Amino acid sequence: MSQAQKKAFRSIGHHLDPVVTVSENGLSEGVLAELERALRDHELVKIKLALPEREDRAAMLEALVAESDAELVQKIGKVALFYRHNPKVNPKLSNIKRFEEHHGRR
């Protein structure tokens, strides 16, 4: 992913709300299923890590990247922005398609 893409995705991500929350219970099947659905439908998703310790959040981010096959675009505090391209995405659901004209990308 190029720096220009990351910048555009961060700009889009600024306007998104977290759609997946990971708590101290860790990566349950439900969390992974919801992350998979969100990435498939929206491509760019914000995730909230409700973990108090910085080291725990870093480990959880690594696990999420490995499990989801997504790219970490940005992390700030307890929130992370993930991206995974879907060639068959519904343009009405994709955050990339919905916001591309609003962020100087066209």
Overview features:
106 residues, alpha+beta, Translation Initiation Factor IF3, 4-stranded mixed beta sheet, 4 helices, 4 strands, 42% helix, 21% strand, globular, RNA-binding_CRM, RNA binding, YhbY-like_sf
Layout of strands and helices, then pairs:
Elements: H1 3-13, E1 18-22, H2 29-42, E2 44-49, H3 54-68, E3 71-76, E4 79-83, H4 95-99
Description:
With 106 residues, this protein is of the alpha+beta class. The protein has a single domain (3-104), classed as YhbY-like (Translation Initiation Factor IF3, 2-Layer Sandwich). The protein has four helices and four strands. It has a four-stranded mixed beta sheet with strand order 1-2-4-3, sandwiched between helices. The two termini are 18 Å apart. The relative contact order is 0.21.
TL;DR?
With 106 residues, this protein is of the alpha+beta class. It has helices at residues 3-13, 29-42, 54-68, 95-99; strands at 18-22, 44-49, 71-76, 79-83.
Order of helices and strands: HEHEHEEH
What structural category do the secondary elements indicate?
alpha+beta
Average pLDDT confidence is 90
Instruction: Tell me the overall shape.
Output: globular
Major β-sheet annotation:
4 strands, mixed
For the record, the CATH class is Alpha Beta
What are the low-pLDDT stretches, counting only 5+ consecutive residues below 50?
none
CATH 2nd-level architecture: 2-Layer Sandwich
Q: Over all CA atoms, what is the radius of gyration?
A: 13 Å
Strand order of the largest sheet: 1-2-4-3
Pfam family, one: CRS1_YhbY
InterPro entries: RNA-binding_CRM, RNA-binding_domain, RNA-binding_YhbY, YhbY-like_sf
Organism: Halomonas organivorans
Domain CRM: 1-95
